[in-house]
What we know:
mainly alpha; 25 helices; 51% helix
Amino acid sequence: MTTSPSDDFITGQGAGWRAGYLAGVMAERRRAEGGGGGPNPGSPLLGTMMEECGRLFETEVLPRMDPTSRAMLAQVNRAGRDAVRLFPAELACAGRTVGVKLKVMDFAGSVGRLAWAQANGCLWVARTFVLVAQGGDLETLQWAREHGCPRHAATCWHAALGAQVSMVEWLIATGADVNYTRPREGATAVYVASQNGDLDVVGLLVDAGADVNLAHNTGVTPLYVAAQHGRLDVVGRLISAGADVDMAHTGTGATPLLVADAYGHVDVVVRLIAAGADADVALTVTGDTPLFVAAQKGHTSVVAQLTAAPGVNVNMSRTVDGATPLCLATRNGHLDVVEWLLAALGMDVNLATNTGGTPLLVAALYGHVDVMERLLAAPRVNVNQARNTGATPLYLAVYNGHIDVVEQLLAAPGVDVNRARPNGTTPLSTALARGHAEVVRNLRAAGATEPHA
């Protein structure tokens, strides 16, 4: 059997080798029919006939083929179908002769192509139903079903993924499993529709009895993924259908509220809080609550909603390092968030991390002048509270040469300019050692004691 040497069939080149190929197929056909070896593929007369056949195909047939037909032939060719080199009328027959089992799915795309393939002996397979559904043409899918194409359990899933509303509706009406779960990752049709924000498809599936709490293999639910992508209308529809608002990611412990918060989807946050979502639930490893995440990322509008939510602990320390939401907002210089947190009822401005770092110490360390100004104005702020190493806010500002912060702290009531660390170093001795001349002048003017020689 001659092997097809290239893909130049579609370009209309290589008539000579196609003639030899077709002759070889004819010989194979005669053998299959019991006719012996058949004509010699190398016969001059037969070669001339095949040459002329190839020329006619290239000049008369191929130019008249529409792009869809060319694409069909190219697709079959890429799949290794030997019979692609033949005229369409010969394709199925040659395929049976040389042992190539063509399937109807190789021609999925239109009713005409499916009908031709079926009429010429191609085989139905369930996967065809999925391929037709992926093409998005409901009429073609209905024709395939009416003409014996077996259903595939994943068809409704793929139609939902492709946002094919009419197709999903028809599949549901004809008995599709709306809770089919894709084996690879455990996603359902309502999951992918929620992820894409397709409210119409979600509505159809929910109304047909889809379980809105069936989770992905990681525990992610349709509500979680809708919240993650900010699909407010889908979030509302799922909540109305009984979605569990606190069902969490099995690996991280993140809930729909926490993930909406992380992406700054304030409208989704408001909707979830109104539905009773736990606003203080924490991540498994770090202990971050929604307020921690919003404060760290600078989502001011989300922080405003969370601080007003019932039962939210604005002074909670996370497990990984003991930091509070105010510490995280301060470290990242989110002034608006700092102001919202300081205004929250019961806020303790002096709560420290596991290493003793207060928000004031953090602002001094990073040189956040605006945040420092706001913290110094807070009631009961302790300007001399030190880290576990004995470093005060003034010491840290001096060490890092943050002259503006040094000036702010020196002007604060009650600041101790001479407070030393356990090793005896003071702000002035540190400024001298690090060569911060302007800081040295300011410290001396504020009454700092000269270090002993």
